TrEMBL record:
CDD domains hit by this protein: DUF302
InterPro entries: DUF302 (IPR005180), TT1751-like_sf (IPR035923)
Protein name: DUF302 domain-containing protein
Source organism, top-level taxon: Bacteria
UniProt cross-references to Pfam families, sorted A to Z: DUF302 (PF03625)
């Protein structure tokens, strides 16, 4: 239960108003896309901390929600430099990617751009770590999107 609570709280606090969200069209069902994402994350040497099934959570309280899963993952080699620049970066780490089905049946991957996550913190806008995180998120979601 603690990992689920942590995952939900992380998702809530990690998306400031006006943050840029990148969306990537994906092929297959939400679970299939999330399986591919999880495999890509593991293959890249990162650690998966939690996989949250929002749809199952809604069903557990007798509410409906379309297919939606959140993967929380990280790599200390990427996250530590951001936290060294500003410990508050830990509020936005580990990284998160959402896979969801829209109202028309399309499946999407979505994530917040690292530069937006750390905006207003002591992480320089031109920090190498931001480019590395952005590149990793792009590669991982491309691999998961299939097609």
């Amino acid at each position: 239960m603690k990992p689920l609570v942590f995952a939900i709280l992380s998702a809530i606090v990690a998306l400031p108003a006006g943050a840029e969200v990148t969306r990537v069209a994906a092929q297959g069902s939400v679970p299939e896309v999330m399986d591919r994402l999880e495999a890509a994350v593991g293959g890249a040497g990162a650690t998966v901390f939690a996989r949250v099934d929002h749809g199952a959570g809604a069903a557990s309280v007798e509410m409906e929600l379309g297919a939606s899963e959140l993967l929380i993952f990280g790599n200390p080699a990427l996250g530590t430099p951001a936290m060294q620049a500003d410990p508050l970066a830990g509020l936005y780490l580990p990284l998160k990617v959402l896979a969801y089905e829209d109202s028309e049946g399309g499946v999407w991957l979505a994530y917040e751009e690292p530069a937006d996550m750390f905006e207003g913190l002591g992480v320089p806008a031109d920090a190498e770590v931001l480019a590395k995180m952005s590149g990793a998120l792009g590669k991982l979601t491309a691999a998961a999107a299939g097609g």
